[in-house]
């Protein structure tokens, strides 16, 4: 096949995938992309050095064709994809069953990445239809492990993966925003507050990962009797923030289910 990767839709998420591959020194001439916005496609081509198709059909002579349009635009994709090509969908809320209605003869992989692919720090949950053989799966894993840990999950878990992994960076950004704003309230200049907050979120994640300890043990370790952490945790407990976070993921997963059933 002429290309290894063909991308249909060159928006935010496709740009993050391409950036992640470029970071890993993948050969950009192995990648071709197409977007209905030709000026946008041209910019992406210039920025990353990938090939840009003048017609959507040019993308399908690739080993993996990635569907990276908004879910509501899925049915606007009019293209014949050869049955040897593996289709990879990153679209939220489009189940394999719906993809098979349009592409009944293709191996199909459904993935839920996030924008952190662009800095090679995403988790990659995926699920496959029964046409995906070992070689195709290995090819997919080879390319997607550039972004982070790749894990096969049951399709029934994809909605919750959409909530946690797809929307997760947005939720964490919201918490970082709150933490920074509260620090400003306590007198720190915003730039300092944000830098400090980012270092705390990054550092705590890195520490937990490196030492392989649970967040709960870590928290108990840093909470001295009658100390400052203990006083702050009291405010969190009183607010019922854990319940709010449960609701956040429940509502977000419900929305992913709604999209799946629409
Ligand atoms: N962004 C995230 O954080 C994230 C995370 C996980 C998964 N996803 C999934 O990734 C997909 C893309 O999201 P995104 O945020 O990258 O969207 P986006 O920025 O809107 O990019 C989609 C691009 O596809 C173009 N397009 C629409 N119909 C097309 C067609 N028929 N052929 C070719 N190009 C077409 C759009 O053009 P127009 O703007 O003119 O429509 C747009 O440039 C979505 O399905 C989303 O569920 C996104």
Explain the overall architecture.
The protein folds into two domains: 3-153, Rossmann fold; 168-261, ProC C-terminal domain-like (ProC C-terminal domain-like fold), CATH 1.10.3730.10. Helix content is 50%, strand content 13%. The two termini are 35 Å apart. The model has no long low-confidence stretch (mean pLDDT 96). The radius of gyration is 21 Å and the shape is elongated. It is of the alpha/beta class and 262 residues long. An eight-stranded mixed β-sheet has the order 3-2-1-4-5-6-7-8, sandwiched between helices. Bound molecules: NADP nicotinamide-adenine-dinucleotide phosphate (NAP).
Q: Given this structure, which CATH class of the largest domain is correct?
A: Alpha Beta
Low-confidence stretches: none
* Strand coverage percent: 5-15%
Q: Looking at CATH, which topology of the largest domain would you report? A: Rossmann fold
Query: Structural class of the helix and strand makeup?
Result: alpha/beta
Shape: elongated
- How many discrete domains? 2
Bound molecules: NADP nicotinamide-adenine-dinucleotide phosphate
Overall helicity: 40-55%
- Helix-strand pattern: EHEHEEEHEEHEHHHHHH
Which tags fit this structure?
262 residues, Rossmann fold, ProC C-terminal domain-like fold, 2 domains, 10 helices
Question: How would you briefly describe this protein structure?
Answer:
The chain has 262 residues and is an alpha/beta fold.
SSE layout:
Blueprint: E1 3-8, H1 12-23, E2 31-34, H2 38-48, E3 51-52, E4 62-67, E5 86-89, H3 96-102, E6 108-111, E7 124-128, H4 134-144, E8 150-152, H5 158-166, H6 168-185, H7 190-211, H8 215-221, H9 228-239, H10 241-261
Parallel strand pairs: 1-2, 1-4, 2-3, 4-5, 5-6, 7-8
Antiparallel strand pairs: 6-7
Helix pairs in contact: 5-10, 6-7
Bound molecules: NADP nicotinamide-adenine-dinucleotide phosphate.
NADP nicotinamide-adenine-dinucleotide phosphate (NAP) binds at residues 8-14, 34-37, 40, 56, 68-71, 73, 76-77, 90-92, 112-115, 166.
